[in-house]
Amino acid sequence: MEPDEHVASPLIAKISFHKVLETLEEIAESDVDYRSDYAKALLRHTAPYPELRDGITDLSLLEKHEKLIKNLLADLFPTALTKNEIKAATIPFFNITFNHTDRFKQILMNAGEDFGISIRNFDDHQFYVFCCCLILNGYYGYHFDFSKPLFYDIPDADGIMHHYRILYNADFLEMLPTDKAIHITDDDVALLMDNFDNLELWKEKFPAGSWISKGFGIVSLFDATAESAISNLKTNLLINDEKEISKSDFEGIFRSIYQIPDLRIGFTEVNVQDNVFRLAPFQEIKSYILNGSKEISCNTMMCSGTLDTMLDEKKYFVLSDVEAYKLQDDADAGFAEHLLEQNIKSCIFAPIIKNGKLMGFVELVSSRAKELNSINANKLAYILPFLTDTVDRYYSELQNEVDAIIQNEYTAIHHSVYWKFREEALLHITSRDKKDHAYKEIVFREVYPLYGQIDIKGSSTARNESIEKDLIRQIERLLLVFRYIFEKEKLPLIEQHIYELEKLEVQLKESLKADTESIIQAYIINEVHPVLKHFDSSNTEIHQKIIDYFDTLDTKMKMVYDSRKDFDDALSIINKQMAAVLDRKQAEAQSFFPHYYERFKTDGVEHNLYIGASISPKHTYNPLYLNNLRLWQLQAMCEMENEYYRLRPGLPYDLDVTSLILVFSSPISIRFRMDEKRFDVDGTYNARYEVVKKRIDKSHIKGTAERITEKGKITIVYSQKQEEAEYRRYIRFLQHKNMLGSIIETFEVEDLQGVTGLKALRVTVEYSSSKQEKGTYSYEDLLKELAPSA
After folding, report:
1. pTM above the 0.90 mark?
2. Which residue from 488, 491, 591, 736 has the least number of CB within 10 angstroms?
3. Element (H or E) spanning 257, and its range?
């Protein structure tokens, strides 16, 4: 093998047989005649070639002297062992090998002409330092232990990768300094042993080409494929990110272990409770039991006897010859055929069991009969524990991810109050032995609420209008089709449907009742469409009219769904964007003082905020933080209005929004409702706040039929004089920032059930066509800005 001439090394490799020749000279002078004669003959043959003693640097000379070198090394490479041992002469760490045993030659031949042998994971840095250590040990007499496991990875003729452990013998090698060599002191060695990673230091003490390695080493290999593959499997299974592990990685490892070039790996999840085989959520890994299906009943796939073996006994299920199994077992012939369709002629299904729970089956399959059998199935005993731990870990991580998604998307426990839930959960865990321990309710007392909403104005009316438009459009299209058919063929049934459709059209244009949509949809789908689908006519124009009609329908609804889709899309876009603005602003607001936050998407976006000392007891609470949050909320509402203003031109359905803030200065208590999995106000007095919150957006200005909310304006509802004064200051500040208009409306709110005396401020939002500043102004900024007028 040719060495890499571009790799720097402190050593100049000179392949020499001087130590062998010196030994031969001693034997030649011995009293054993046959040994002496043999040694003299070898010395006589090598005498004309001084390079064998002085050292060879031109590797082509190794080929020239191949037979002579083989005779010189005959005692070290016994002929009787040449077909069994994997052995060659070498220079340690250099990719130079020669005088191979027959078995070594065959291995290299099977790997292919283009294969270049190299040590696995052995970079230039390690190569340089290890060569330096050879010098320190061989010349200076130190004893550095640098013998980490080294491997050659060599494929066989079938492409299966074999892993060979490398063992070096350097008895016939000596280190000689050149004039470039630097003398190494004990202080140098002390420095070097603590600086393996400092390659520049090693190169300083051992310059490139400053030493000569004269002689040769012996490399012996043993096939450690199974052990190495299992080690690689462990390494891969420890990778936390399953995306880094590919199917080809696993199959390559298993092929090395089993020495089967066409071995394929699969996995099938088992749900014992539902008695189904299920597709596992592993990337790239397929299921040969399912073969493309997501889920199959266990009883459907195979007979009960086979299931008992797989599910109850939890033993390996091995088929060494699937074709023979198909012929001898009628009950499972269908399963055997299912495997043969995938070109599976032999297979092993091994159960993955953790703590008595069956999670699934690892599938090993081959396209050749008898390759997999009950004997080599036992190799899995070394592998399954690692696979089991990995599958268990993966499912645990998957469950954690699912729990996180559920918590984040469905039953969120906000991080500001998570500490309280964790505290209670830990108390429960540490008190499991106490039978009387029960979960305590989570209550936060003396907190101040803030409520706001940005609502779709007249969403119910707009939704009804979209329904009406779609239904009228569909009836008009149906009437065109039926009238055309009736012109061609005077059928009474067609005339009846024309009459019924015309009647529905009139009703729709008059009014839309609560059940109108469902009645018309049921009539069209159950009575009208079947007539059109089964209408037998030789008239191709009628046939085309019917096809054109069905092409205009929504593929899922089987109805005209244009206006309703536009409305739904517009509502979804508004909700998504408003929620995104609010969530982004909330991340910023938490830095003021930790507080509870939740939002809801309905026909718009509502949000609740609760702030107080009980929510964050580790922080010192001050009323300043409530003021700061109120100002933040008003600014956030302005930004949400502006976001809608920028969205509106591109919406598929024209909708207006209104904004509302409810001010409530009295502290309340909130309790986590275990049955509803959400926070709610606690106590009768606090319920007044909830009553106002639920009814305020639909209320009117006292003595009028005008709603308190209006598009393009923010309405602030309050009950106390100091609240009005506080918010007027905020409004003046935001007017100064050109976020609110100059006119402030004041009015009383109509009496609600059990609630009277509410008042409101209403102010216009100043929209900006360009993206306005997103910065949040703190309460301290407000005080500075308004100090002169205050």
Report:
1. no
2. 591
3. helix 247-258
How far CA 723 is from CA of 254, 726, 728, 736, 758, in Å, comes to 73, 5, 9, 20, 11
Closest by CA to 734, choosing from 648, 639, 654, is 639
Phi, psi of 522, rounded to the nearest 5 degrees: -65, -40
33 Cβ neighbours under 8 A, 6+ residues apart: none
Q: Which residues contact 249 (CB under 8 A, 6 or more apart)?
A: 236
Number of continuous H segments (helices) and E segments (strands) in the chain: 27, 23
Cα Rg for the chain, rounded, in angstroms? 42
For tokens 């402030």, what's the residue? 744
Spatial separation of the C-alpha atoms in residues 280 and 352, rounded to whole Å: 13
Question: How many angstroms separate the CA atoms of 293 and 652, rounded?
Answer: 39
pLDDT per residue as tens digits for the range 44-77: 999 999 999 999 999 889 999 999 999 999 999 9
DSSP string for residues in 352-372:
EEETTEEEEEEEEEESSTTSS
Q: What is the DSSP letter of 161?
A: E
**Residue 735 CB partners (closer than 8 Å, separation 6+):** 741, 742
Q: Phi and psi for 331 in degrees, rounded to 5?
A: -65, -35
Q: pLDDT tens-digit profile of 347-384?
A: 999 988 888 788 888 999 999 999 999 888 888 887 78
Determine the Cα–Cα distance for residues 23 and 546; give it in Å rounded to an integer.
Answer: 103
Distance in angstroms (rounded) separating the CA atoms of residues 158 and 259:
9
| Secondary structure letter of residue 311 according to DSSP | I
pLDDT average, residue stretch 563-587? 89
Read off the amino acid at residue 684. T
Q: What angle do CA 597, 603, 607 make, to 5 degrees?
A: 10
Residue that has been written with the tokens 């100064």 in this structure: 736
Half-sphere exposure of 35 (CA within 13 A, CB side): 11
- Compute the distance between CA of residue 142 and CA of residue 362 in angstroms, rounded to an integer: 50
